Amino acid sequence: MQLRYAFRVYPEPGQRRALARAFGCARVVFNDAVRAREDARAAKLPYPKAAGLSQQLITRAKNTAERSWLAEVSSVVLQQALRDAESAYKNFFASLKGERKGLKVGAPRLKSRKDARQAIRFTANARWKITSGGRLSLPKIGEVRVKWSRVLPVTPSSVTVILDSAGRYFASFVIDTDAESDRARWEEPDPDSAVGIDLGLTHFAVLSDGTKIDSPRFLRRAEKKLKKAQRELSRKQRGSKNRAKARLKVARAHAQVADARKEFHHQLSTQLIRENQAIAVEDLAVSGLARTRLAKSVHDAGWSQFVDMLQYKTKRYGRTFVKIGRFEPTSQVCSTCGHRDGPKPLEVREWTCPACRTVHDRDHNAAQNVKTAAGLAASACGAPVRPEPVLAQRKETGSHGIPAENRAA
């Protein structure tokens, strides 16, 4: 399994200029590749191949007056920009044909130097290395200081240098992990341990064993600070240096909220994985809920990010993950006798089953029904019934290990 480990890096002023040059050259090559394909489409000609684009946009372009500055950066960075363009078109065509799961992907667009995120990738061919002093040596950039928050388990196969909207630099390493060694890191939980999770807004999560996990509401707690920063930004003159400083202040405030939310999700998902052999959640329609009056609270909770973490961590550590359908009536069925009492408004937090007279907490009852619907509840003979693992892809980044194929370079 391929994972990504991201670490904060602190380039010196000269190295920042070299990185900015590399970001710009990679962006130009990507845009030239998109433009060449669009010109071929307009002329009703076959799309140019990757090898032809490499010769035209990199090798021969370096010998021209207009693109001679491409020689100032590593050629691997430019080749990876071409590969990114190829991947973008493959995803676009696969989405058109219905071969790609998830939301529809649009045609690749030209990148801008004002984009919030810039990135370049170095593969093993670039001969980058980690020095004995713990610095990251990059070709034509130099030895960059890295803040190592953990030890890399194996030698990485590639590294991506990222500049985010808050002006922070990160080095994201791709490593290949061994499933057996990953599973040996933790003690195996009870083979019969399983948990159903009901995600919500009043409580972030309610477990089938009755545990309630409060929602930290990171965005709500930071709203006052964010409003002040946004107000200051709106008063600055467009194009001025003061506006650029104010924009950076807003971006950093949002980054703090996102980082705190991500760390909370990582800690909770890891705890659940370590303590349970099987985990079940409900497939929530987050995109639909994000268009209601609860949109801000839904985005603040970050359910999709949390579920994605559960999915890839269960795959990594050999656990079982089940996602039940979103139309399962978990809030309408009595978890004790199975009587269906019908839909209830959100303000109803407790209700009594008319059949068995059991008093239910709405969220706890839903979590128990999630566990039952997933087949993780005990059977009549007392033995747990578990289906085969349902594995899914991870889409989030961070300092924790995450699947590399789902992290954009």
Write the layout of secondary structure elements.
Elements: E1 2-10, H1 13-42, H2 50-59, H3 75-97, E2 118-123, E3 129-130, E4 136-138, E5 142-147, E6 158-163, E7 169-176, H4 179-184, E8 194-199, E9 203-207, E10 212-214, H5 218-221, H6 223-234, H7 241-275, E11 278-282, H8 286-289, H9 295-301, H10 303-316, E12 320-324, E13 350-352, E14 359-361, H11 362-373, E15 402-403
Parallel strand pairs: 8-11, 11-12
Antiparallel strand pairs: 1-5, 1-7, 1-15, 2-6, 3-4, 4-5, 6-7, 8-9, 9-10, 13-14
Strand content: 15-25%
Number of helices: 11
Q: Which blocks of ≥5 consecutive residues have pLDDT under 50?
A: 379-399
How would you spell out the order of helices and strands?
EHHHEEEEEEHEEEHHHEHHHEEEHE
Mean pLDDT figure: 89
Number-wise, the strands total 15
**Fraction of residues in helices?**
25-40%
Rg over alpha carbons: 25 Å
Shape: elongated
- Which structural class do the helices and strands define? alpha+beta
Largest sheet: 8 strands, antiparallel
Task: Please give the alpha-carbon distance between the first and last residues.
Answer: 18 Å
How would you describe this structure in keywords?
five-stranded mixed sheet; alpha+beta; 11 helices; single chain
Briefly summarize what is shown.
The protein is an alpha+beta fold.
Structure description:
This protein is an alpha+beta fold and 409 residues long. It is built from 11 helices and 15 strands. The strands form 3 sheets. Strands 1, 2, 3, 4, 5, 6, 7 and 15 form an 8-stranded antiparallel β-sheet that branches. The protein has a 5-stranded mixed β-sheet with strand order 10-9-8-11-12, with helices on both faces. A two-stranded antiparallel sheet has the order 13-14. A hairpin with a 6-residue loop joins β13 (350-352) and β14. α2 runs antiparallel to α3 (75-97) and α6 (223-234) runs antiparallel to α7 (241-275). The radius of gyration is 25 Å and the shape is elongated.
